[in-house]
Amino acid sequence: MPDLKIIKDFPDDFTFGVATSSYQIEGNSFGNSGLSHWDCFSKIKGNVYNNESGKIACAHILNYKEDIKLISEAGFSAYRFSFSWPRILPDGKGRINQDGISFYDKLIDEILENNLKTFSTLYHWDLPKNFMSQGGWKNRDTTKWFADFTDVIMRNFSDRLHSIATINEPWCVSWLSHYLGEHAPGEVTIEAGVKTMHMILVAHAEALQVIRSHNYKNVGIVLNKQFVQPFDEKSETLKVTNLADEIHNLWFDEAIFKGSYPTQTIKLFSKYMPDNFEEDLKFISQPLDWVGVNYYTRSIIKVDKSETFLGYKSVKGDLIVTDMGWEVFPEGLKNLIERLHNKYSKNVPIFITENGMANRDCLKNGKINDFERIKFYSDHLKQCKNLIENDIPLKGYFAWSLLDNFEWAYGYSKRFGIVYVDFDNLERIPKLSWKEFKKNLTNKEN
Ligand code: FCB
């Protein structure tokens, strides 16, 4: 039987938490929220499984007290959540929605009353719809409007935020959403992909500057990393594997920690980069207080000339896969964090801000026995423990996710929660993995 006894071997000051994001759980139709580009993207047939959307999601807006209780009862000490930009500024700028402010006021107070640390994220993908017609993240103005939104957050909430992340997963915001087209706004051009790879980092820097102007300390960014491996040892394969590694991982590490872009990629991208992009790099590489890493899987890179711009595609390996079809590869987490620490972030504290798996969870006699998920967590925590033993400043681990939720293009078909959600009546049912966390975090039997 897999278990999470390993939790007891972590240092006392190590933070265990759970993560969620606004659009995936809140229910965008509640509380006079404005619309985001996900509302528009999900309306177009074929973009999201079953034409689902985040309109209702887990109705966290109505159930947040119960949800926060589930976190504290399991013995976690932190909650990572995100602010919805259109919930606070329905048009993206200008008019403030007081219902939105009051929701986050109540949410934050509830988190604090439950003795949880507030790990907040400013942008977990709900770009106000209003900006879509103006180019969205391709438009430099959006980075300024993001700065203004950041200021609203700082003025209202910063005294109660333990930490702030500017952007969740800049690679997903840019490449996945503007070149691969899998996420909102679903663009598929080189120009859009390359431009947003830069602009999202400018947005990060703009927000950081506003946050610092409020004398706030404890700000970071959350990067999603994928462990990239070559399909074979041919030199051509190694070359494109390096390119894939740069685009997925090193683009962000180098820009943020060194103020430069990796050579192979910038050569390929240069013709599409915004004018004078070099001038932004110093701004982008302002010091951070911590860096977050979201880790799920590896990818295997194979030369493929039918991909005419990049010259490669990722192919399936032979490891066990989760319900997302993602291979389970815990060693990748260790390797990526070691490289981040040794070559880039140095002494900056690192948090695993997301890690988890989708599983085909079934409710049987009122129970969900998600053994696979417990094993997944245990195997990845082993790698974390090893990193700490090797003096890497790894300070916390957040399970993705508290609840089954709107898994973007997969709608509600993929269950990542340690708590099951019945999407017919929105009942929450803790899974065995939740109970196993509780057992080891609180030392209490259930
Ligand atoms: C990450 C996202 C998160 C969730 C997980 C499965 O890329 O940050 O919202 O969808 O993947």
How is this structure best described in words?
The two termini are 17 Å apart. It is globular and about 55 Å long. The chain has helices at 22-25, 37-43, 60-73, 85-88, 98-113, 140-157, 170-178, 190-213, 235-258, 263-269, 281-284, 330-345, 371-389, 432-442, and strands at residues 15-19, 78-82, 117-123, 163-168, 219-230, 290-303, 312-315, 350-354, 394-400, 419-422, 427-430. An eight-stranded parallel β-barrel has the order 1-2-3-4-5-6-8-9, surrounded by seven helices. It has a two-stranded antiparallel sheet with strand order 10-11. Helix 6 runs parallel beside helix 8 (190-213) and helix 12 packs parallel to helix 13. It has one domain (5-442): Alpha-Beta Barrel (TIM Barrel), CATH 3.20.20.80. The protein is of the alpha/beta class and 446 residues long.
Task: Give the arrangement of secondary structure elements.
Layout: E1 15-19, H1 22-25, H2 37-43, H3 60-73, E2 78-82, H4 85-88, H5 98-113, E3 117-123, H6 140-157, E4 163-168, H7 170-178, H8 190-213, E5 219-230, H9 235-258, H10 263-269, H11 281-284, E6 290-303, E7 312-315, H12 330-345, E8 350-354, H13 371-389, E9 394-400, E10 419-422, E11 427-430, H14 432-442
Parallel strand pairs: 1-2, 1-9, 2-3, 3-4, 4-5, 5-6, 6-8, 8-9
Antiparallel strand pairs: 6-7, 10-11
Helix pairs in contact: 3-5, 6-8, 7-8, 12-13
The protein binds beta-D-fucopyranose (FCB).
Beta-D-fucopyranose (FCB) binds at residues 21, 24, 168-169, 172, 224, 294, 354, 400, 407-408, 416.
